[in-house]
Amino acid sequence: MVSITLKCLFAIGIVVGLFCSRPAFSCGPFLEQAIFTYTLHPDVPLTSYAQGQLGILQPTYAQSYLYVAYRYLIGIGFHQEEQEALLALWNERLNPQADLRNPHASAAMKAWSEARARIAAGGPPPQVNVFKTLEARNGRFYYHEYVNCPADAFLTAARTLTERIGQFGADSVEVREWVRAQDQVFSNCSGARAIPAPAAPQSPEMLLKDRAYQIAAAHFYAGELTVAERLFRDIAADPASLWRPLAPYLVARALVRQGSLIPHYHEVDKAKLTEAQQILHAILGDNNLQAIHPASHRLLAVVRFRLEPNERLHELAQSLLTPNIGPVLKQQLWDYTLLLDGVADARQGPDTGAARRDEVTDWILTFQDTGPNALEHALGRWTTTSALPWLVASLAKVGAGHPRVPELLAAAEQVPRQAPAFASVTFHRLRLLSSLGKQDVSRQQLDGLLSQAEPIFPPSARNLLLALRLKLARTLHEFLLYAPRVPVAITYNIDGRELPEDIETNERLKLIARDQPLFDADAARVLNRRLPLDTLRELVHRSTLPSHLRRELAMAVLTRSLLLREEDSTRDLVPVVKTLIPELGPSLDEYRATISRDARALPGSL
Amino acid sequence: MQGQPMRLVRPYHTPQPNTRQRHLGRWPRLIVVGVATALGALSQLPSPAWLTRPASEVHDRLAAFPPIVLWAWERPELLDFIDPHAIGVAFLARSLYLSGSGVIVRPRLQPLSVPQETKLMAVVRLEADRLRPPDLSSQQLQLATAAIAEVSGVHGVQALQVDFDVGVSQRAFYRDVLQKLRRQLPAAMPLSITALASWCIYDDWLTGLPVDEVVPMVFRMGADQHRVRRYLAHGEFRAAACRHSLGLSTDEPLPTLRAARRRLYLFHPHAWRPEAMASMFEEVGRWSALP
Asked: What is the pTM of this model?
């Protein structure tokens, strides 16, 4: 008896293993996972989502995706340029190393390296590390790194060197001295302080002015910011300096660093930042300084971020709902979500009321919130505004027993098929109908949706529909029809980002045919735990399943049958298993040839 | 820019918490008793006895390191409230991306603040670049090792931890990195590595690695989660190297391991706050008291 029980358990274990929702060969410390519905981000590639194919929105999506959803839900789409900005942002976030390959930054460094390489007499160009450490020991240990030398510095240096080569020649003493000074400037990016000496008084005036600028820049990168500020102010006041038009911006930058590079998190020097803000406003009001307006706009955004984060969050929430704001969308959304992270982190503590004054922020925080109050808040907002985003949020959170479900269902039915909200609204409507005992209606509509190649249901959403439909299966045939699903990703998910592996470059993963359906956990659970052997055997005989799944099913059911010593079942299964898995033929023939019942069970089990 | 430990980024860039998924888990048992309930005002109170007892079975180089270590991942971590004599901090100092034949270095761009006496462990996380899979060449080995070793020079860092969820095909490379790294580090500098829990159970490839500590991470285990937890419900890690420490997360259940003296590394998915730490300590205290 004990032996039989153990064998049954063993058999079940094998069956469970065979029916697991990941590919059958997976084993070992790194397991391939089949993801059927993304939870952290929409389906990849994200192009379709950026174009407004939202699918079924998940509360676990990162904020940037929910912002995009909100904008589509209120009827403001994204132009091509904006969609590209969104994709660039997501690419950097999903591949954190990508921004280290920032084309702009790489191009800047490359430009400088190439220009510098032309000065053979200057020796090999020193390697530059753009990061510097901010470290303090004042009773505490404070530490982080920051970008000390941005891309613009290298572009400016490359451009200037090229000009000086044109003016004085690559082999000239003047250019060699200029390069030596510039190498010193960049050595401050991460290394010890190195300030170039003033140029010889007899040098051409242009080089005297260049040197003054290099000295100021060296102080700046060395972290001697008050000195740098003073020197940049001197340049701004020097009518003979070529650097004069740029100098006010550099004064502002020196002030911004003084105001924000402080070894106390959240602490800023408001006076310095306010002064920087005033200078930047002055620059932006001066038409003669239009060349530095774009950079000044960007720096002003940094100042606002640091100086008044709550107000900046508000500004960004408003700006991000402006139609066609262009490529600035990327930086604005980046800053907005960074600020929003701070709010979200504080969600369980301090009041988030100030942030929620903006509808988009309120909606994102509510949609992400799985707490008990979020549904009532969403319903309240829907009542007040009748806005589609709040209908979506309410439907996504509500259970069938809630008294307002009939209203929600009625409103959901009015959402047109072309609307970006259609997939979310429809899924939740059908989910609720199923729970309310209207399975026939739900089943019929699901069949209608699944029988069409609806682009409004991307693969993740389609798998959710299939899962819902599986719950409503009335027959084995229906079960087999809706159980297999094509995974949206096969991944090791080592970094937790739910990104598919590149199957083409992975020998193990090549064993998985692209676009092949597999069983998700719900179907595997039924097969492993709910169905008796006779029913499983019946499933093997049906040809409804794709052949690879039918093979796995046949193998698992045969194993179960052998371990349970179900002779009749085994006899019935052997021919079909031989057909499906010809390589097992010799073993099965050997089994048949074995005489005794116990002897048959043993080789089969082994 | 590939092939050298070079870095170019936009100014004022800070990495987004949105994409930070991974990291660290929940619970070991250090000793004894439900003292942890007294930890309410942790920042002000003396540490309970179970916090201050040294882990006994770790290598000598780590003997002075506290038995509880908070992982400070890349987000603003202001840990001024900890008792530096009872709690250490392992902070993500930089991330390396093995990309093509090169190594891309991303430094810590978010602030860390701790009491000055805190025992600090610098963590270096390695990842294989999805966009350009690594060639695992000797050049890459050289670059990666140098970039890891570099953080041991950060003032105040007393130990180094490498975090690399290495694939089977990358193990030989990782082993070489660790061996080379050990030779480059000061002799007294402890070297710790994190390990997927499955490494400690299914196939012990960790034996013989030149490290002072292997920290099995019993959280964020993905598809392995149930299997690992079931395994641990009935016994100890198969790999001996994994029995002296444990990585736990505040948002996942503690494993059902038997009581033993381990150094605990605690991960919190948000910035640490006194309440989160106190709550975790309370839970650990209860767990440690289990028979």
From this structure: 0.77
